[in-house]
Design a protein that fits this description.
alpha/beta, eight-stranded mixed beta sheet, two-stranded antiparallel sheet, 4 helices, 10 strands, about 20% helix, about 30% strand, Riboflavin_Biosynth_HTPR, DHFR-like_dom_sf, RibDG_C, Dihydrofolate reductase family protein
Length: about 200
C-alpha cells in the first residue's frame, strides 16, 4: 500500500514557515556546504524540486524516485500561483485541499474542497509510488491519522513564530527514528516511521 509521507523543512522551534509564509530564513551554510546538502537531497527526492527549477538543478529528466503524487494546502500552493506557477509539480499528480480555490485554476491540479482524509485513503489504495504531503501545518494536522512517515529537514534556526508543522487538536502520535543524516551546514534530515 502507498504511504503518506510528510516531507518538510522545520525550524528548531517547529515552524515550517514564518508568519507571512516566509521560508527564506533557513540557513544553508556556505556555497560548498549548500551544494553538498542540495546534491544529497536532490539525489534522493528529485521529484520534490518544483517543475520550473528542475532544469537548473540538473533534474529535467530525472525520474520520480519516491513520490508520484503531491498533496498541499492553499497556503503552500498559493505563493506559486501568485508567482505565475499554477502547476508547480507538473511531473506529479497534484492535489490542493481548499474550500476557496477555484476548481479550474489549472487543468493539471485537482482541487479538493473538503474531506482530505477520504482523499488520502482513496489514493493509498491505488498502485504507485508514495504520496508527498508538501504542507501546510493545518492540513498535516488534519491528516495526522493517515501520515505513515515523516521526513523532517531540521534547520539550525529559531523562527520565533510562524506556521507550525502541525496544527490541530491535541493528539500525541508516536513515531520512531528510522534513519538520520547530518550535514556540515548543521542541517539534519530525520526519517521517522509511525509506531
Amino acid at each position: 500500500m502507498r504511504k503518506l509521507v510528510y516531507y518538510v523543512a522545520v525550524s528548531l522551534d517547529g515552524y515550517i514557515a514564518g508568519p507571512g509564509g516566509e521560508y527564506d530564513f533557513y540557513p544553508l551554510g556556505d556555497e560548498e556546504q549548500a551544494a553538498a546538502y542540495s546534491s544529497w537531497i536532490n539525489a534522493r527526492y528529485p521529484e520534490t524540486v518544483p517543475h520550473f527549477a528542475r532544469a537548473a538543478e540538473g533534474l529535467a529528466d530525472a525520474p520520480n524516485r519516491r513520490f508520484d503524487t503531491v498533496l498541499m494546502g492553499l497556503g503552500t500552493y498559493g505563493p506559486g500561483v501568485a508567482a505565475g506557477f499554477t502547476s508547480p509539480y507538473a511531473h506529479l499528480r497534484q492535489y490542493v485541499v481548499s474550500s476557496t480555490l477555484a476548481p479550474d485554476t489549472d487543468p493539471a491540479v485537482t482541487v479538493v474542497p473538503n474531506d482530505p482524509l477520504a482523499l488520502v485513503r482513496e489514493l493509498k489504495r491505488e498502485e504507485g509510488l508514495d504520496i508527498w504531503l508538501c504542507g501546510g501545518g493545518i492540513l498535516a494536522g488534519a491528516l495526522l491519522p493517515e501520515i505513515d512517515e515523516l521526513i523532517i529537514k531540521s534547520y539550525p534556526v529559531v523562527a520565533g513564530s510562524g506556521i507550525p508543522a502541525f496544527s490541530g487538536a491535541f493528539d500525541p502520535t508516536l513515531f520512531g527514528v528510522a534513519d538520520r543524516a547530518s550535514f556540515d551546514n548543521d542541517v539534519t534530515v530525520t526519517h521517522f516511521t509511525r509506531r
